[in-house]
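Example record

The entry below shows one chain as it appears in the dataset: sequence first, then C-alpha cells.
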Amino acid sequence: MAGKTLLVGMAHPDDEVGAAGSICAQVARGDRVVVAWLTRGEMTQAFGPVSEAEVSRIREEHGRMAGEILGCETRFLDFRDTQVEATAEAARRVAALIAEVKPDGVLTWGDAWGRGMRHPDHQACGKIFRDAVTLARLAKVVHPLPPHRADAPVFTFRGAYSQLPALAVDVEPWVEKIHELARFYYERIGFGNAEWVDRRLRAAAQPHGLRYAEVYDAWETGAGVVQSLLPAAMGSPGEPPHPSWRDEPGAAGGG
C-alpha cells in the first residue's frame, strides 16, 4: 500500500501535543506527516521581557525540535499570533500549502468551545484549514501549483458537546513519546503538565474501551476505534456519495 500523507494544521507551536500520539502512529506506519503552524506563538509571556522577534525565533526552534521528537516534517506560515482570522485570503494561502503537500487527510482545530479550544486563533485555524481543503481543488486558486483533488478527509479535535461521529485513535503504544513532547514544552513554556496529559488521554479513552486515546470529530469518515487516522474511507454511514471534482461548484472550465 502506498504511503499516506497527513497534514496537521495548528495555530501555535505546542498545539500538536493534543495529537502527538496520532502523529506517532502515522509515522510508525511509514507515512509522511507534516505539522504546519500558522503562527509562531510569539505573544506568549513565558520568556519574560524579550522582543516578539526573539520569541518567534525561540518558538520556531521549539517547533523544529518537536518535529524531531515526533519524527515529522514541520512548517511555519506567517500569520500573527492572536490575530488569525478566517478570511478568504487566509484560506487561499493555506490552499497553496495543501496543493504543495498533497495530503490524504487533514487534522486541525474544530468548533469546540471548551477552555483552550475556544482560543480565537484555534477557532479561526480550523475554519481556514477546512475551507482550504476545498479551495485547493480549484486550479485558479492555487495556480501555478496543480490543484489537489484527491480525497483529503478532515479530522478535528473533539469537544464535549460535539454531535459529529467520534473517531478514537488508540495511542497506548505512543504514551511515552506523548509525554516526551509534553515534557519538552513544559520545561520551556510551562505547558504540558504530565498529570494533565495522562488524565486527558485516559478520559478520552474510557468511552471507547481503551487505556489511552486521542479522539477526533470525523467530518467525512465513519466513527469507531482505529490504530491511525489514515488510511480512511470517505463518507459516513447514511451519507450520499461524495461528488467527483467535476461536479463541484467552481470546477467547470478548469477552475
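Notes for this example: DSSP finds seven helices and eight strands in the chain. The first strand starts at residue 5 and ends at 10.
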